[in-house]
Each structure stands twice: as C-alpha cells, then as structure tokens.
Amino acid sequence: MKTTTDGSGDVRLDGIGKTYGDFTAVHPLDLTVPQGSFFALLGASGCGKTTTLRMIAGLEEPSCGTVRLGDQDVTRLPPYKRPVNTVFQSYALFPHLDIFENVAFGLRRRGIKSVKKQVGEMLDLVQLGEQARKKPHQLSGGQQQRVAVARALINHPKVLLLDEPLGALDLKLRRQMQLELKRIQTEVGITFIHVTHDQEEAMTMADTVAVMNAGRVEQQGSPTELYENPRTTFVANFLGTSNLIEAEVDSRSGDDIVLRAGDGKLLLPSARCSAPAATGEKVLAGIRPEKIALTHADDAGALPDGRNRLTGTIADASFIGVSTQYVIDTPVAGALAVYAQNVERDTRLAPGAEVVLHWNPAHTFALDAAQDIDAGTEEEAAL
Ligand SMILES: Nc1ncnc2c1ncn2[C@@H]1O[C@H](COP(=O)(O)OP(=O)(O)O)[C@@H](O)[C@H]1O
Ligand SMILES: [Mg+2]
C-alpha cells in the first residue's frame, strides 16, 4: 500500500461537532485521516464514535464544522453523492439474493450490465469465490461480513467506513477477521476508518488510532506512540494497563528529573516530560507492567545502579501461560501490576514474598497530576 502525501484524498474534519438539544455528543474536533491509511476511532460505548462516522458519511448533519475529502467540501452533500461507503455491525445483506447478487447490487443500481468480472474480482478479494451462489443465511458470520465489505468496495469508494463491523463475531473469528480486513485494506489501498471499542482490535489493525472520550479526541498516533507515550490518564489506562504513581518533582540530575514518591526516588528522563516540571510540582509517574522486573528482596544487593526501584510485597500472582501477572503492594504507590514473561521462573516469587520492583528509568512517562488517576480503567467503567 502507498500512502500519498499530497493530501488530495485525505479526509479532513474541521471543527466538526454534534449536539442533541443541550447534550453534546461530539465536541468540535479536528481530524485528518491520510489517504490510504487504516485509521481507527477507539473509545468506550457512548463516546461519540458512531456520530462522528455518520457525519463523515452524511447520515448525520453536523451542528458545526466541515467535512472535506481532499479539496472537496462535502458537508452539504447527501450520502449517496459522497465517495464513501459504510459497513455496519449488522451486515444488512439482502436475504433473498445470493452472494453474487448482493455484491453486484451497487453496479446494477447504477445500470451497469456486465458485472461478472468485477463481482468475481471482489469475491476473490474477500476469498468467497466458491460461495457465489449461496444465500447469506448459508454463510458464517465472518463470511457474511466479508460479503458486506465486498458489496461496499465494489462501488470504488475513496473511503470505507466500518462501524464495529466485527462486534457480532466471537473472539477467535474476530481475531481472524481483523487480519483479513487489514489484508484487504492493504490490497485495495483505500482509506479505512474503523470504529471500535476494543483497544486490541484498534492496535492490531490501524496505522493511526484516535482515542475518543466523552465526545473528544484525547490523543491520536500510531499504536506504539499511544502505548509508549500516553498523554492523558484516560489513554494510559484505556490502552492496556498503566501503573500511575503520585509523585513530586524533587530536583534535576543531568538529563533526568528526580521525582520523590513517598520516601523513594524515581528518575524520569526530561525529554519525557512535556510540562516544565518545577520543583514541588505534582506529577503522575507512569510505568507499564511489562517494563517492571521483580527481584526477590534477598537478591536486591546484586541489582545494578541507575534503575528505578520500589519495594513491595507480592499480593497476588496469576499464571496465564506466556506470562505471570503479579499484583504487588507497595508502601509508596499502593498496588502495582507487574507482568513477567515465563522464561526462568523464580519460585520464591509467590504471594507474601518481599520483592524489589525495578525498571529502566527511560520507560517512565509523566502525566499531569490534575487528572482523574482512574480515568479509563475497568473499575471506572463499571461505575
Ligand atoms: N439521535 C440522538 N439523539 C440524542 N442523543 C443521541 C442520538 N444519537 C446518539 N446520541 C447520544 O450521543 C452519544 C454518542 O453516541 P454514539 O456516537 O452512538 O456513541 P458510540 O458510537 O461511541 O457508542 C451517546 O450518549 C448517545 O446516547
Ligand atoms: Mg457506536
């Protein structure tokens, strides 16, 4: 796939927003989706993903702002005049038509008579060439969803919008379809905007992910960028798991900022701190569970210098095959999560054991402390 950089096919949202009465479903947002990219809108249910997608499709009239495709302002165009197609969770296939005719539908509607070659190519693209004469109900959910994708792509849209298209599939099939959709997107090279509440799905498939929360885009970037450098507690907690430690700026040491957390000190590379960080300022120091190593307290003397360290007691250890997930009670930061790959397991690392948690300071990130530390966690979602 080639992503063009001249901007001629980009989807550009400028200040687009939607209110229903006095409720704001989408706060005015700016978003550029580069032509040919696989873009995911990720967020919990109700955060405004579908509304945003429907405004791009023309199915919902924005309360403010503009939608552009390349240089063309399409804000006032009806859906059928936009070079955009949508695939929904409910595949909405025509039950009485066979697969071939479902895919041919868009061509026939435009009065095109010889559809065989194009339909054949589309069916091959989604690997359903053998199923052409079956009816939708004779196919599995994943196959039906591929028919829906073929039916949309045959219209040669510039942009394909997908609203939780895999939501009805079971986990294993969903994983297969994620790879399948990614392959199809790479092969056809058009822009996909994919809406999902599943962070793993967004990370697996997308070049760029925009994380939405309560009608706003909190952050966008590549999956690695979002994971390694979250800028808000919501993003840090919603994408995977983060340990967030309340700390205070103590001093500077070379290229590092020294943070004080309880009676412990942690190093934070200055480059990872976006704000000025004056002495005494409060920050949340973040560290991902897999970046932390555990060493039994008896061996702590052998640890190399220069690593961030906290002491604690193992409260819980769950063996899940590839890794063991520990919960460590620390006097400084409460319960912290640590994921250790099961390579050489230290059998002393069992509940009750005294341990040292340690990590390379370069993996520490910092967030503004004036935020809800639990935003985006499962506990918060359950409230
Ligand atoms: N037609 C409507 N009238 C009033 N509220 C709406 C309407 N459509 C959506 N909403 C509200 O807007 C918010 C965002 O909805 P939606 O975009 O469907 O969220 P998502 O797709 O992220 O789950 C929700 O709180 C929803 O209840
Ligand atoms: Mg939705």
Structure keywords:
383 residues; alpha+beta; six-stranded mixed beta sheet; five-stranded antiparallel beta sheet; 9 helices; binds magnesium ion
List the helices and strands and how they pair.
Layout: E1 11-20, E2 23-33, E3 38-42, H1 49-57, E4 64-69, E5 72-73, E6 84-87, H2 99-109, H3 116-125, H4 141-153, E7 159-163, H5 171-188, E8 191-196, H6 199-205, E9 208-213, E10 216-221, H7 223-228, H8 233-238, E11 243-253, E12 256-261, E13 264-269, E14 282-287, E15 293-296, E16 308-319, E17 323-330, E18 334-341, E19 354-359, E20 365-368, H9 378-382
Helix pairs in contact: 2-4, 3-4
Bound molecules: adenosine-5'-diphosphate and magnesium ion (MG).
Magnesium ion (MG) binds next to α1.
Structural summary, described in words:
By secondary structure, the protein is of the alpha+beta class. 22% of the residues lie in helices and 34% in strands. It is built from 9 helices and 20 strands. The chain has a 6-stranded mixed sheet with strand order 6-7-8-3-9-10, sandwiched between helices. Strands 13-12-11-14-20 form a 5-stranded antiparallel sheet. Strand 1 (11-20) and strand 2 form a beta hairpin. The longest helix is centred in the middle third of the chain and has 18 residues, at 171-188. The mean pLDDT is 93. Bound molecules: adenosine-5'-diphosphate and magnesium ion (MG).
